[in-house]
Write a structure and sequence with these properties.
The chain has 5 helices and 2 strands. It is mainly α. A two-stranded parallel ribbon has the order 1-2.
């Protein structure tokens, strides 16, 4: 799909991020099992075109390890169970990255870029 529509962007929201390790392993395996089927590495295609909003209880360090900080989105779905009553509490979770640039990307910049809002405003 991403080969046919190279400007397509997908945001995975309200799905969490537990699916990432298994999906990326499957894409990696598919790339090896079917050489030439994909024009480029299917894992890299996924990482270039898909953004993921993990649940607050997902392991953010693992999500960033799989996708990099540029494709992780902050989201709050309160009052649903996967949302935080105080969404700014998520800043404590992003602080575990020990990287203020990555924190800002996840909390604001990535969503701003994805939706066409100006970056660096918040």
């Amino acid at each position: 799909m991403f080969e046919r529509f190279p400007s397509l962007h997908v945001a995975s929201v309200e799905n969490g991020a537990e699916f990432l390790p298994l999906l990326l392993a499957g894409l990696n395996r598919a790339g090896f099992q079917q050489p030439g089927y994909f024009s480029s590495d299917p894992v890299e295609q996924f990482k270039q075109h898909v953004w993921v909003a993990p649940f607050w209880e997902d392991d953010l360090l693992e999500v960033v390890r799989h996708l990099g900080p540029d494709h992780v989105l902050f989201g709050s779905d309160y009052p649903h169970p996967e949302g935080l009553a105080e969404p700014r509490q998520y800043e404590k979770i992003t602080a575990e990255l020990n990287d203020p640039v990555a924190e800002r990307k996840i909390l604001w910049d990535n969503t701003a870029k994805l939706t066409g809002l100006p970056v660096g405003v918040a």
